[in-house]
TrEMBL record:
Pathway: Lipid metabolism; fatty acid beta-oxidation
Location(s) in or outside the cell: Peroxisome
Pfam families linked to this entry: 3HCDH, 3HCDH_N, ECH_1
Protein's GO biological process: fatty acid beta-oxidation
Classification via PANTHER family: 3-HYDROXYACYL-COA DEHYROGENASE, PEROXISOMAL BIFUNCTIONAL ENZYME
Subunit structure of this chain's protein: Monomer.
UniProt record similarity statement: In the N-terminal section; belongs to the enoyl-CoA hydratase/isomerase family. Belongs to the enoyl-CoA hydratase/isomerase family.
Reactions the enzyme catalyzes: a (3S)-3-hydroxyacyl-CoA + NAD(+) = a 3-oxoacyl-CoA + NADH + H(+)
Protein name: 3-hydroxyacyl-CoA dehydrogenase
Keywords: Fatty acid metabolism, Isomerase, Lipid degradation, Lipid metabolism, Lyase, Multifunctional enzyme, NAD, Oxidoreductase, Peroxisome
Predominant cellular place of this UniProt entry's protein: other
All residue ranges annotated as the 3-hydroxyacyl-CoA dehydrogenase NAD binding domain in the record: 296-471
This protein's record includes keyword Nucleotidyltransferase: no
Length: 679
């Protein structure tokens, strides 16, 4: 049997090497190999120091997540790491790529850590609804202090090698191309010295001297932690590192870890981890499909959407030519882009040199001919089929053959747009979400004739610009907006029947969404798509516009807003809604929060089922990816389809029937057969 761990002798240093592609996850064979490697070093008097490193693209990226939920097979990671740390011979972790989760814990159990400048180190377990479970929450604070450990353990965001060195997590930064040799030299320099062990460190006393740091951290990060169980457990574990002995602290960590692992949130978040990766794969497009090189991108429209789309590529170092019809609009659009970058720089997340470099890759133009050499052109103009057809017809005439032509439409028929060109195989939808430079989701809309290489290239490109992509077939609203429309329909109906609009919003907030439909309307602007005639009022939204309640930007929409954008329900809006309900003859009744939640969410599940039945989504988990990344569906419930599986499809069907709402045959069939969406 081949083992993923091998050892090599370099003079008096034993190098333990892991080769477990793709990410050196710490599966059973790796753990056993690590333990055996340490035993080899300890039992050989000629070995005086040890280096642990990994082949391939990264240092250990953590425990093997595919083993979670299965019967554990020894040695456990904590056992292997205790053996490692106990060594009297110095052990050095040589880090490249990403040392994450259990990988970071391996490094913490080593006596020293050296890293290449490009390495990243982190404890992302909270993103899987967990906390570190191999003493990471106990060794890290003892090594770097509770204050420095908190953001790493609680947010799960990795830090650079440089930052890690600054907080004392990394002892030395070594040559990018000479990691092994430098790590061996470092290890030799430590021979004969007493080994420092993180478990024996005392830096954690900062949290004992100043216990306020935990509450401060909670307060500062409260909004991001809302609804999540793991971050609170992470804080508790780091706090325990200061209050308890190491052995007691480890026990506490283990209890918290086991509780989270058995809970629903971690199960949902682990589902999401694999869902995101599955969404990137297109079942009938071979993984080795040759890609179209994308060296230059064109964007049509320099409005909020076009500008945001362009920024994604500029930030990834890809030159963009951006086209507008009028100089004034072009200047305004590029000005907004620069300002957005400058704001990012002000927040310390970019340097001014990086701002200039990104903007330096932008070519503004008024002339379609300047798009001729682009490899991909994305249209982000007004949502009107005739306008889109005209744009695509023009593009077809100017842009070089073999280039991809994409529409950012959020609901129009891509096949009809493609038919306006002589190259429908090269046309697809790339639906970005607003603000396009921030939102993670990219819905990739596959037309009837879209070529495999065009799709494969788009998926790869999405990853390059930091997006999470999911493929949708051609249907009105695609996956996301098609399901959203069902929720919105019910939201509008509920307030006509007597539900308070703030209760409708609050139900979704309590479920874990960042905001409800009416808050969302206020944020986006109530006047989107308004005909601008105050005398023509046929909907509640038009009535709000008629009295200048355009949303947050006007200080009032469904809600009144104060300077700090706190919302209060408005008497004026209550009256407008009541008048509408009376005019349309809706009987008024008290509506419970349970009914509101069921009527908002169950019709979405039903629509999701139809989307699957029509094969508009490849798999249920793709729908989860769309809703988590595009619409703020709480990740700790796993997305709409996973959530429906968890509560039971029979519950969803019964709820829809109770409220007199349609049930699709597909959903009913699955429920009757006792099946789930995510199999
Ligand atoms: C943990 O460590 C708990 C401990 O504290 C306690 C122990 C007691 N396991 O993301 P990619 C697969 S919890 C199994 O596309 P990239 C992934 O599914 C863990 N599989 O690559 C994919 O498979 P496929 C804490 C894993 O270059 C393939 O590898 N660690 C694991 O874009 C490539 O992945 C984490 O949460 C894993 N741990 O990004 C880190 N990781 O090809 C999780 C990846 O079949 N991993 N796979 O679709 C990552 O963040 C990224 O994978 C990484 C590379 C940044 C490393």
């Amino acid at each position: 049997m081949t083992t993923p761990i091998r050892t090599e002798r370099h003079d008096n240093v034993l190098v333990i090497i892991s080769d477990n592609p793709p990410v050196n996850a710490l599966g059973q064979a790796v753990r056993a190999g690590l333990a055996a490697g340490i035993e080899e070093a300890l039992s050989d008097d000629a070995v005086e120091a040890v280096v642990i490193r990994c082949d391939g693209r990264t240092f250990f990226a953590g425990a093997d997540i595919t083993e979670f939920g299965k019967a554990p097979q020894g040695p456990s990671l904590p056992e292997a790491l205790d053996k490692l740390e106990a060594s009297e011979k110095p052990v050095v972790a040589a880090i490249h790529g990403t040392a994450l989760g259990g990988g970071c814990e391996v490094a913490l159990a080593c006596h020293y850590r050296v890293a290449v400048p490009s390495a990243k180190i982190g404890l992302p377990e909270v993103k899987l609804g967990l906390i570190p479970g191999a003493a990471g929450t106990q060794r890290l604070p003892r090594l770097v202090g509770a204050e420095a450990a908190l953001p790493l353990v609680v947010t799960g965001d990795p830090i650079s090698a440089k930052k890690a060195q600054a907080i004392g997590l990394v002892d030395a930064i070594v040559g990018e191309d000479s990691l092994e040799a430098d790590a061996i030299a470092f290890a030799k320099s430590k021979i004969g010295q007493p080994v420092p062990r993180a478990s024996e460190g005392t830096a954690n006393q900062d949290g004992v001297k100043n216990p306020g740091i935990f509450d401060d951290f909670r307060q500062k990060n409260g909004r991001k932690m809302r609804g999540f169980e793991a971050p609170n457990a992470a804080i508790e574990a780091v706090k325990a590192a200061g209050e308890l002995t190491y052995a007691e602290g480890v026990k506490k960590e283990r209890e918290l870890f086991a509780k989270l692992m058995g809970g629903t949130q971690s199960k949902a978040m682990r589902h999401y981890f694999f869902a995101e990766r599955a969404a990137n794969k297109i079942d009938d497009v071979p993984a080795d499909t040759p890609l179209i090189p994308i060296r230059k991108v064109g964007v049509i429209g320099a409005g909020t959407m076009g500008g945001g789309i362009a920024m994604n590529f500029l930030s990834a170092g890809i030159p963009v030519t951006i086209l507008e019809m009028k100089q004034e609009a072009l200047d305004r659009g590029t000005g907004v882009m620069r300002k957005n970058y400058e704001n990012t720089a002000k927040r310390g997340r970019m340097t001014m040199e990086q701002v200039d470099a990104a903007m330096g890759l932008l070519t503004p133009t008024l002339d379609y001919a300047d798009l001729d050499d682009c490899d991909l052109v994305i249209e982000a103009v007004y949502e009107n089929m005739d306008v889109k057809k005209e744009v695509f017809g023009t593009l077809d005439g100017v842009v070089k053959q073999g280039a991809i032509l994409a529409s950012n439409t959020s609901y129009l028929n891509i096949d009809e747009i493609a038919a306006a060109t002589e190259r429908p195989g090269y046309v697809l939808g790339l639906h970005f979400f607003s603000p396009a430079n921030v939102m993670k989701l990219l819905e990739v809309v596959r037309g009837a004739k879209t070529r495999d290489d065009v799709l494969a290239t788009s998926m790869k490109l999405a990853k390059k610009i930091g997006k999470v992509a999911a493929v949708s077939g051609v249907c009105p609203g695609f996956i996301g907006n098609r399901m959203l429309s069902k929720r919105q329909e019910q939201a509008n109906q509920l307030i006509m029947e007597g539900a308070n609009y703030w209760d409708v919003d609050d139900v979704l907030l309590e479920f874990g969404f960042p905001m409800g439909p009416f808050q969302m309307g206020d944020l986006a602007g109530i006047d989107i798509g308004w005909h601008r005639d105050p005398s023509k009022v046929t909907t509640v939204r038009e009535a709000l516009c008629a009295v200048g309640r355009f949303g947050q930007k006007a200080g009032k929409g469904f809600y009144d807003y104060d300077e700090a954008r706190n919302r209060t329900p408005s008497d004026e809006v209550k009256t407008i809604i009541a008048d509408f309900a009376a005019k349309e003859g809706h009987a008024q009744r008290e509506i419970s929060k349970d009914e509101i939640r069921e009527r908002l969410l169950y019709p979405m599940i039903n629509e999701g089922a139809k989307i699957l039945d029509e094969k508009m989504a490849q798999r249920a988990s793709d729908i989860d990816v769309v809703w988590i990344n595009g619409y703020g569906w709480p990740i700790y419930t796993g997305g709409p389809m996973f959530w429906a599986d968890a509560i039971g499809l029979d519950t969803v069907v019964a709820g829809l029937e109770k409220h007199g709402l349609p049930v699709s045959d597909y959903l009913r069939g699955k429920a009757q057969r006792g099946e789930t969406f995510n199999g």
